[in-house]
Structure formats: structure tokens, C-alpha cells
Design brief:
Blueprint (H helix, E strand, L loop, with lengths): L18 H9 L6 H12 L5 H13 L1 E4 L7 H12 L13 E4 L4 H7 L6 E4 L11 H13 L4 E5 L2 H5 L3 H14 L9 E5 L8 H13 L4 E3 L11 H18 L4 E3 L7 H14 L12 E3 L2 H14 L12
Parallel strand pairs: 1-2, 1-8, 2-3, 3-4, 4-5, 5-6, 6-7
Helix pairs in contact: 3-12, 6-8, 9-10, 10-11
């Protein structure tokens, strides 16, 4: 599994489309063979990462985590503690790599940015009226610009699922384009945009594939399964469909887009199954934090426990690592 990669290039400006043109574009995407998807997921679940590669796979999974806290009771102190853990997941073992990013609400971006300044860990923010997306576009753009100005290097926005399900594809497309523009900053590179589809509300696998293509055409740097606030969240089936979408999108356009499953990935077994799925579906080019992320809060501790088991031969107690 590769350990390094160049940063993801920014998407070119998105062209303007009418709703009819977008409908025609999405209608041209092939339908999803639901039975085939479930059979493929079941087959991939039988694959295992051998002992010789498991330690590297665990470290890669750690490096792919967006360590996340998205609760109404979040405090600056909790965010600082999360940032400390992101940089040094196991204070007793400095060979454990840092995670990819810390993900917080916009009003706590400044706290995270200060704690992570001059480090390799990014600052992600769920801007744009997360998690429902039910706010006027002007409000969503202000939310995004606020987070970027305070130091967010990544923005996780959620699409308007109501508009998408009603067939108003242009509204969804134009909002993604506008949020993408709001990710620009005058004093540095723009924040990368992850577009959350909230797949648990899209009803069908065909809708997941269409929403994936719509987001990528609008300029998404990543497509993300879910907010973690809706059930089901990151199921293996929708992750597989989105990996197929980014693979096919690169073949069609030459542009690579990342994937981020979020919600419900809690164990090392879950994480390693995702890595197998990435390798077998999109390919090894996506086996890097620049192209694949896992949105999680509790997963890191399980990865640390499994890593310690490989190193020492025994599991640490469940209370050995901090809860946040």
C-alpha cells in the first residue's frame, strides 16, 4: 500500500448547465445492479489482510481518519484535546502516525486551527448548514466563508436532498459550485470540498450513483456518504457504488476525486474491509489519505488496540485510550 502521494489537484471551474442538460447527463449514467452490488460486497468481505501487511494497513487506516466531534455540547477544551490526540494518537508509542484531519463545527475551527498550526493534520469543518442543509444559499455561503477564514483547510458540505429527490438537479449543482467558490482564500490554496450526499435519504442505489456524478461534475474534491446523523450511514454497498463512480469518472474525464465514508465504521475489521474495497474497486491510486478518508470518532481507539496487539501480543484495556 502506498505511503505518499501528491496533494489532490483542484477541480477546474464547473461549466453552467440547464436542468434539462443535467438530467440528460445523469440519465446517461448506467443503472446499479443491486443484486450484483450485494454479491460483490459479500465477496469482498471474505478477503483478509494477511499478518505481514496488517500493521501497514492499520497505520494507513489511522492516517485516513477524519477525527470528528459534532455535538452540541462541544467545547474549545474538547476540541483541543481531540487535536492533541490527532497529532499523537498514542502518547506511549510515537511511531503511531497522526490522523488526516480533525473535523468540527465552524465556530470551533479557529480553536482547531490554532492547535494544529504548522502540522500535517488538516482542519475540516461541516459548514453550509450541516446536517440538514436547510438554509438559504446566502447563509450557507457565509457559513463556509467563516470557516475558511478561520483556518479550515477542508469543507464538508451537505447537498439539498429535497431538491435532488424532486429532480431539481440544477439547484443542487449550482449550490455545490457556489460553495466550491466560497472555499477560495486570498492568502493561500482553497479549502478542499467534500460533498456529503446523505445516502441514507436518497432511497435508491441509482440515486446514490447519480448524486455522486452530479457532485463530481460540480467540482467536488471528495464525495462523502453521510453526515453520521441519519441511519443508515456508510453502508458497504453505498461505499462500493461511490468508489465505482469515482473510478468511472476518472476514466471519463481524467480527474480523480476522493471518497469519504462516514458514520458506522467503528472497528478495525470495518476499516480494513474498506481498504480492501478501495483497492479492488477504485484501485491502489486511491489508497492514500489524499483520496480516501474515514469519518470517525470511536474507530481510532480500536485501531490503536489492534496495533498494540500486533506489537506486544496483548490487548490494552478498553479504558487505556482517551474517549475523545
Amino acid at each position: 500500500m502506498p505511503d505518499t502521494a501528491s496533494p489532490a489537484p483542484q477541480a477546474p471551474p464547473a461549466p453552467a448547465y440547464s436542468n434539462a442538460a443535467l438530467r440528460a447527463l445523469l440519465d446517461a449514467t448506467p443503472g446499479v445492479d443491486e443484486a450484483g452490488v450485494h454479491a460483490r460486497v459479500a465477496d469482498l468481505a471474505t478477503r483478509s489482510v494477511k499478518t505481514t501487511a496488517k500493521a501497514r494497513a492499520i497505520d494507513l487506516a489511522i492516517r485516513m481518519i477524519d477525527l470528528t466531534t459534532l455535538e452540541g455540547a462541544d467545547t474549545p477544551g474538547k476540541v483541543r484535546g481531540l487535536c492533541t490526540k490527532a497529532l499523537l494518537p498514542d502518547p506511549t508509542d510515537r511511531t503511531v502516525p497522526p490522523v488526516a484531519a480533525v473535523c468540527v463545527y465552524p465556530d470551533l475551527v479557529g480553536v482547531a486551527a490554532q492547535a494544529l498550526e504548522s502540522t500535517s493534520v488538516g482542519v475540516a469543518s461541516v459548514a453550509s448548514a450541516f446536517p440538514a442543509g436547510r438554509a438559504p444559499l446566502e447563509v450557507r455561503l457565509l457559513d463556509t466563508r467563516y470557516a475558511v477564514a478561520d483556518g479550515a483547510t477542508e469543507i464538508d458540505m451537505v447537498i439539498d436532498r429535497g431538491a435532488f429527490l424532486a429532480g431539481d438537479y440544477r439547484k443542487v449543482y449550482d449550490e455545490i459550485v457556489a460553495v466550491k467558490e466560497a472555499c477560495d482564500r486570498s492568502d493561500g490554496p482553497p479549502a478542499h470540498l467534500k460533498v456529503i450526499l446523505e445516502t441514507g435519504e436518497l432511497a435508491t442505489y441509482d440515486a446514490v450513483r447519480r448524486a455522486s456524478w452530479l457532485a463530481m461534475h460540480a467540482g467536488a474534491d471528495f464525495i462523502k456518504t453521510s453526515t453520521g446523523k441519519v441511519t443508515p450511514a456508510a453502508t458497504p454497498a453505498v461505499t462500493l457504488i461511490m468508489l465505482q463512480a469515482v473510478r468511472d469518472f476518472r476514466a471519463a474525464t481524467g480527474r480523480q476525486v476522493g471518497v469519504k465514508p462516514a458514520g458506522g465504521i467503528r472497528t478495525t475489521k470495518d476499516a480494513l474491509r474498506n481498504l480492501v474495497m478501495v483497492n479492488e474497486t477504485a484501485g491502489p491510486d486511491w489508497l492514500d489519505p489524499h483520496w480516501f478518508r474515514i469519518g470517525a470518532s470511536s474507530l481510532l481507539n480500536d485501531l490503536l488496540m489492534q496495533r498494540a496487539k500486533l506489537t506486544t501480543g496483548t490487548y490494552p484495556g478498553p479504558d487505556y485510550y482517551s474517549a475523545d
